[in-house]
Design a protein that fits this description.
The protein has about 140 residues and is mainly beta. The chain has one helix and 13 strands; from the N terminus they run E-H-E-E-E-E-E-E-E-E-E-E-E-E. The longest helix is centred in the N-terminal third of the chain and has 4 residues, at about 10-15. GO terms for molecular function: carbohydrate binding.
Length: about 140
């Protein structure tokens, strides 16, 4: 059960309680962190290797094809509803994936950012706001 990957299709997520017959979808592989956006899902394994699953949709969270390794190393990763991707590495450095679009969901490069002078533990982004849990326990909110 550890590091098994599950997703739920958006049509299930938008209806609570879940409609009859809705359930979690198990994917092959093993990841410690998994986050999905409108056209890709990103994950991180126990060795901090980064993976993307392309061609996801509202109805098919499992996508098509297999996971593809992306250069870099992150301890956690988050994908926003607009497709933007952010992550934190094991040293507490914050990164954003640049060049992510519907036609290029893997983007082109990682750009380092700073929201917390003391380093980062966790990050989340949506609706133009970046929320960071800092290494010192404080929480920072940044508009992007």
């Amino acid at each position: 059960m550890h590091d098994n990957i599950y997703c739920a299709n958006m049509d299930s997520n938008n209806n609570w309680p879940w409609p009859s017959g809705s359930s979690w979808v198990q994917l092959s592989g093993s990841l410690k962190y998994y986050s999905c956006g409108p056209y890709s899902c990103w994950g991180v394994n126990k060795n901090d290797q980064i993976y993307i699953k392309k061609d996801v949709s509202d109805k098919v969270c499992s996508g098509s094809g297999s996971f593809v390794n992306i250069p870099g190393a992150l301890a956690m990763i988050e994908v926003a509803t607009d497709g933007r991707v952010f992550g934190v590495n094991s040293q507490g450095m914050l990164y954003q994936r640049i060049g992510v679009t519907r036609s290029n969901p893997a983007g082109t490069e990682w750009r380092q950012m700073t929201a917390c002078p003391s380093g980062h533990k966790h990050v989340s982004f949506d609706l133009g706001m970046l929320w960071a849990v800092c290494a010192d326990g404080s929480i920072h909110k940044c508009s992007l």
